[in-house]
Amino acid sequence: xxxxxxxxxxxxxxxxxxxxxxxxxxxxxxxxxxxxxxxxxxxxxxxxxxxxxxxxxxxxxxxxxxxxxxxxxxxxxxxxxxxxxxxxxxxxxxxxxxxxxxxxxxxxxxxxxxxxxxxxxxxxxxxxxxxxxxxxxxxxxxxxxxxxxxxxxxxxxxxxxxxxxxxxxxxxxxxxxxxxxxxxxxxxxxxxxxxxxxxxx
Length: 201
What we know:
Elements: E1 8-13, E2 16-21, H1 28-33, E3 39-44, E4 59-61, E5 64-69, H2 75-81, H3 92-101, E6 115-119, E7 125-129, E8 135-139, E9 142-146, H4 149-156, E10 163-164, E11 169-173, E12 179-184
Antiparallel strand pairs: 1-2, 1-3, 4-5, 5-6, 6-7, 7-11, 8-9, 8-10, 11-12
């Protein structure tokens, strides 16, 4: 996943968040030693905000611990709408607003590109994709997600077993990988003539 990042890396493992600058090998020993049922990792290519460990995903806002891939084009307006302080990284706006509202439909209000993965400190995994790549692969060990299809193809050994996550739905999984619920998220975001993505930077 470092080919989509490289500026910094972070992970939520066994109830703790770990962050470092540069690529993800700095975290590999922690991953290798972990027996966690729920793991969230992220490799950041910074588009908004300084390239610091503090600005590295995953972010924690109250019970929400998560990461986002994409570029939000109206995060300032959404924060202002909810009377929340501006953030230095656009992705933080997702979890700041969710913490205040506990309303998943807010995901549909963001313009730009978005996929987001988080937990609510309850052992469950929440997965949402609108228009940014996100793939899944399931085997006997559980379910895996990645923004890069080839990463999951390496694990599965067969690209046909790797599926794209359905857009405009929030999927909630138990730590075992069992799907608990799916919720339709209506896209009511402003549609920009030019949609910026991380590779534009």
